[in-house]
Fold this sequence. Notes:
The chain contains three helices and 13 strands, in the order ββββββαααβββββββ. A hairpin with a 4-residue loop joins strand 4 (about 40-50) and strand 5. The model is unreliable at about 1-30 and about 80-100 (pLDDT under 50). The strands form five sheets. A four-stranded antiparallel sheet has the order 3-4-5-13. The protein is globular. The chain has about 220 residues and is of the alpha+beta class. It has two domains: about 1-55, no CATH class; about 65-219, no CATH class. The protein has helices spanning about 100-110, 115-120, 135-150; strands at about 1-5, 25-30, 40, 40-50, 55, 65, 160-170, 175-180, 190-195, 200, 205-210, 210, 215-219. The two termini are about 20 Å apart.
Amino acid sequence: MKRIVLKGDNDNLGLQGSVPNGVMISLSGLTPVSVGTIAYGGYIYNTWSGGTHGSVMTTYSLGTTNWGCEGTLIGDIGLGWNGISFPEDDIQFWDIGLNSCYNTTKIVNGCSETGIAAKLCNDLNASGYTDWCLPNWTEICKINDVYFMMSGVNMGLTPNTMYWTSTEYDDTFAVTFFIDPELPQRMEKFPDWQHKTGWTDGFGHYHPNEFYVIAIRGF
């Protein structure tokens, strides 16, 4: 990985678009940054405050696993939305300090199982950062929309597959999201939910629910 370190105090300097694959930009005193830029440890998929703050996703998926602790209600990490309307300008839906990091911490503290989605993110050390979280439903909707907008840029996602979110449905189910690079505005769709760990069909066969995981952090 080639790393470019930019230093300065020019608040008017913006980084537009994306950078070549394999190049990581480390910022020191430069604002703002743009959606699609690789900085602060991954792809920037959302910004606010004029691009001086936002959310970043890892440049690769963390593999597949389960949500964990089926039968246990973590509580207070349900859907952060009002019906099917998402206030794009409402920071509480995007500030992962108020959403997914909170969710991830709740899951890690409330579920002792190892290797689950939230713990993969919580324990991640990537690009010099250790404050990674499992995205909630609202955030992964935004990730999918940016994925659509950046057609042709892989962004480390596995298309047409299911990803876990940190959003809980009840003690049995957690919310998942189907990444579709050809379908924008998934925020207008209702969420899916899957068994946290697995399920048994009518023939007595156990089917583990292991879906992909992506990690996010704020800056």
